[in-house]
Amino acid sequence: MDSSRPRFETVEVDSNQTPPPPVSSEQPPQSLPDNEPQIAKKGSLKHHIGKFVFLVPALLILGTIFAAAYFFNNQFRQYTEPTPAPTVAPTLAPATPEPTIPPEAKLNSYQAKKFSFDYSSELLLTECDNFIYLKAATNSAEINDNDCDAAAKDHVIYVQHTTKNPSINTSNTDQSELTVDNVEAKKYTSIAENEEYFEYVVFNQVLVDETAPTYFVVRNDSGSEYNDEFNKILETFKLIKIDPTETWETYEDTTYEFSFKYPSEWTLVPPPEKNKSTKNIVEIRKSANEFKLNTLHIEADLLESDPEVSAGEIIVSTRNLAGWVNKPPIEYRNIGGGTAQVLQGILEGKWYTFVIIWRKNVFIQMSWTDTLEKLEQETFNNMFSTFKFSN
Questions:
Q1: Position 77 pLDDT exceeds 80
Q2: Which of helix, strand or coil describes residue 166?
Q3: SS3 for 41?
Q4: Which of 19, 166, 236, 336 has the fewest CB neighbours in a 10 Å radius?
């Protein structure tokens, strides 16, 4: 019997037994529960990861660029943006009550013919010749007191007016300058120890109907106690001034239509009656026989050319004269409705003033000579100030 053949055994089968189902070599897939994720196959996962591997370097580069930009931006802001100073809340100071202003002291007014001033109503005023005494009032109902001896003894302030230059003891005093009603004044204050305190102000002024000045002395003998009252008198002091030309004569030129005033005691030398020249020549002399000093010489003419050009030529040639100690500046003024150019200075040993005035075609030249002390310069200035054109 061939041993390579398979052997088959005979099995008895029960006819009533159900035969088992045939066994297949292929197993059917098993179903997973619904709540468990499916796992991709290993080969498929590697394939998907491989697609994104090239993005990793790009992300690193972008991250590096972003970090560098952020770092440098912070450094730039650190240097360009100042650190704000901390805000300090203001401390509110406690409210200061406003000071109570005392009521202003009442004032009385003193009015004389030639001057006036105000003084405190707490002082009593007494007039005694050329003195006005002010003393502390012991009775507020008192308005005046005629007892000059008592006022001279008990006064705290006095005002003196006199035509004589007062004798002032200036030793051991501190001196200063001030103005009283626009008049220059000097103030003297005692500085000597163990001596009676005083301070006074001295000034002078020509008053109405007077040719000589009046001197005023305002003196405080009471120390600092009445300083306010003393200063109030000086502050309110008013002088009645005189116009020095009020009583002067007036010269009027009807041909050239101008006029001016001159002292009535001076001499007018009018132009000759038969004047062959077109010029009008007038002189005002302090002394009739003196024409070199204190004489105002005036020449008036009509010009066909431009008077301003002629004035400039004449004023420059006069300024270039060799006799000037120092070449004077040219002063420009408007006076009496006309235009003027003025030269003033020392020329050939005298004080010399040269003036040209013009208006339209009227052309006027003036010359004035005085001593080096300029004793009558104020007189010339007053005459010159009254000059005016008629039309």
A1: no
A2: coil
A3: coil
A4: 19
Question: Tokens 């040719």 map to which residue?
Answer: 211
Q: What is the pLDDT of residues 318-346, one digit of tens each?
A: 999 999 999 999 999 998 999 999 999 99
Q: Which of 207, 205, 204 is CA-nearest to residue 242?
A: 207
CATH number at residue 196: 2.60.120
Residues 220 and 177: their CA atoms lie apart, in Å, by 17
Q: For the chain, how big is the Rg over CA atoms in Å?
A: 59
Which tens digit of pLDDT belongs to each residue from 157-192? 999 998 888 887 778 888 999 999 988 999 998 876
Q: Domain check: are 148 and 218 in the same one?
A: yes
List, in sequence order, every beta strand (DSSP E) within the chain: 107-111, 115-120, 123-128, 131-136, 157-162, 173-180, 183-190, 199-205, 214-220, 238-239, 249-253, 258-262, 267-269, 280-285, 295-302, 331-335, 338-347, 350-359, 362-370, 388-389
Among candidate residues 239, 267, 297, the one where a domain is terminated: 239
| Domain end (from 217, 239, 261) | 239
pLDDT at 60: 77
Q: To which H or E segment does residue 310 belong?
A: helix 307-319
Domain range for residue 279? 249-389
Nearest of 246, 247, 243, 294 to residue 267 by alpha carbon? 294
Report the predicted TM-score, pTM, of the whole model to 2 decimal places.
0.48
Place of tokens 């297949």: 24
Q: How many structural domains is the chain composed of?
A: 2
